Amino acid sequence: QVQLVESGGGLVQPGGSLRLSCAASRMIGSIIAMGWYRQAPGKQRELVAAITNGGSTHYADSMKGRLTISRDNAKNTVYLQMNSLKPEDTAVYYCNARHMGGPRFDFWGQGTQVTVSS
After folding, report:
1. Are 79 and 72 in contact (CB under 8 A)?
2. Predicted local distance difference test score (pLDDT) of residue 59
C-alpha cells in the first residue's frame, strides 16, 4: 500500500501562483507514473499533469503553459507548480500514483482545495 499526502492548496487571487506537493509513503516498482487530477463541483475528475518514472511529462491542454510538474525521487515527492491561475482552476486537486495494472489499482491522495478568487 502507498499513502499519498497532498499539501500546498489554498486561496489565491487570479493571476497568482501555487505549488502543490504530494509526498508518498514509499515507492514501489509497480508505480509507473505520478500525476495530478482535479475535480470542480459538478464536474468529472480530470487529469491535469503527469510525470513518468523516466521523467516524461504530460499536461492538460486547458492548463498547458501554466504548469510544471516535477519529482524528487529521493524524497518520494511530486510537485505541481501552477502559475497565472484563473477562477476556473478552482477545484480539489488530487495526487495519483498510476499502477502498471491499470486505474483500478491506482493510489490516490485525499485532495487539496485550490480556490482562485479575488
Report:
1. yes
2. 96
